[in-house]
Design goal:
It contains 16 helices and 14 strands. The protein has 412 residues and is an alpha/beta fold. The strands form 3 sheets. It has a 6-stranded mixed beta sheet. It has a 4-stranded parallel beta sheet with strand order 5-4-3-6, with helices on both faces. This is Threonine ammonia-lyase.
Length: 412
């Protein structure tokens, strides 16, 4: 894939004045979310970390900003707006369109989770289910746009949307003028394009670092001329974009200093840490900035970093799974496979060792039939709760000292 040329900053389609005008236009109708320092995350990463809590918007995502800025500039004679989205753009556009009395149609893939359909309809939108993929839904939305005379609102590749998203950076710098680095998730590129516009016009140098999931490095490919695959089941579905915008790619090329990629494990860890440390719920995309700090500590050490928690719409069952997996990786939750003799008192004697080591047993799973052991042998898996990895190691050492074969059942 060929790289794209970088245009001069003064030739870019969005300016600081555009973002400032957007902020004046929308500020009375959005939440002025706080920007707070995280002392614990600062100690953990080596940077001075400020978090912008955009997950506290009414629809739990920054997408409201660009959607509202666009709606407020439409021809008043418009018949309505239409978009293709299964995520935060759908809800932000639906909510503000309903509030302004503008009919909204949202085209979603047929496999969109019911909760997202219900939430979008709850904001007054007409939801149309079409196709198995976003691309199919997008194509159908453009067809309906022409058939019904509606106005299409793109989730990221629109100068009005970009200007609206850039208002995040205006507020962050008003609250914390000392920020010298923005670490911003990239999907289609609307948020980082707007924020980089503000950063480029600041009265001091501000580095802008984009973050993408390793499974969807679309903007990284576009900027660097690489051709890594964009596919997979990522926790950060909000930034799982196969093709970035044309406008946003130009702006990222001109204004963004670097793009880093983060693993699924680091995204899971970031979601878990934000809940444990900051007591705030974020989706995978919303945790991407922190995931970058955790993955590249030397890159950000000593810097004053502004991180946008850009969304908090995560399925509760998925969140529970992420938290449990993090507990397992940290050694606080474990499943141990122990070989026993199938005789009275065998499990009791093992349980006595757990008690002596003050380890809580959560579940016990016996396996007598599907095993390669002799008929009088059995395997038992014991799920347990420990204080940390060192505590778990002490338990396993005590079991082995008691004559038992024991091994941890590892996560992938």
């Amino acid at each position: 894939m060929a790289t794209i040329p970088a245009p001069a900053a003064d030739l870019l389609p969005v300016t600081l004045a555009d973002v400032q005008a957007a902020h004046a236009r929308i500020s009375d109708s959005i939440v002025r979310t706080p920007t707070f320092i995280s002392h614990t995350l600062s100690e953990l990463t080596g940077a001075t970390v400020y978090l912008k809590f955009e997950n506290l918007q009414f629809t739990a995502a920054y997408k409201e900003r660009g959607a509202l800025n666009t709606l407020l500039q439409l021809d008043p004679r418009t018949k309505g707006v239409i978009a293709a989205s299964a995520g935060n753009h759908a809800q932000g556009l639906a909510y503000h369109a309903h509030r302004l009395g503008i009919p909204a149609t949202i085209v979603m893939p047929t496999n969109t989770p019911t909760v997202k359909i219900t939430q979008t309809e709850g904001h007054g939108a007409n939801v149309v289910l079409f196709g198995d993929t976003f691309d199919a839904a997008y194509a159908h939305a453009r067809e309906l746009e022409a058939e019904r005379g509606l106005t299409f609102v793109h989730p990221f590749d629109d100068v009005r949307v970009i200007a609206g998203q850039g208002t995040v950076a205006i507020e962050m710098l008003e609250d914390v003028p000392a920020i010298d680095t923005f670490v911003t998730p990239i999907g289609g590129g609307g948020l980082i394009s707007g924020m980089a516009t503000v950063a480029g016009a600041a009265d001091h140098p501000i580095e802008v670092i984009g973050v993408e999931a390793e499974l969807f490095p679309s903007m990284y490919n576009r900027i660097n001329g690489t051709d890594m695959p964009c596919a997979g089941d990522t926790l950060a579905e909000g930034i799982a974009v196969k093709e970035p915008g044309a406008i946003t790619a130009l702006m990222v090329k001109a204004l963004v200093d670097d793009i880093v990629l983060v693993s699924e494990r680091s995204l899971e860890q970031a979601v878990s840490l934000l809940l444990q440390i900051e007591k705030t719920v974020v989706e995978g995309a919303g945790a991407a900035g922190l995931a970058a700090l955790l993955s590249y500590p030397e890159r950000f050490k000593g810097k004053t970093v502004g991180v946008v928690l850009c969304g908090g719409n995560i399925d509760t069952r998925l969140l529970a799974n992420v938290l449990l997996r993090d507990l397992a990786r940290s050694g606080r939750l474990a499943r141990l496979r122990i070989r026993l003799q199938d005789q009275p008192g065998a499990l009791f004697n093992v349980a006595r060792i757990f008690d002596a080591e003050r380890v809580n047993i959560i579940e016990v799973y016996h396996q007598r039939v599907f095993t390669t052991l002799p008929a009088k042998g059995l395997i038992t898996d014991i799920e347990c709760e420990t204080r940390d990895k060192a505590h778990l190691e002490r338990l396993m050492a005590a079991l082995r000292a008691g004559g038992y074969e024991v091994s941890p059942v590892e996560l992938a």
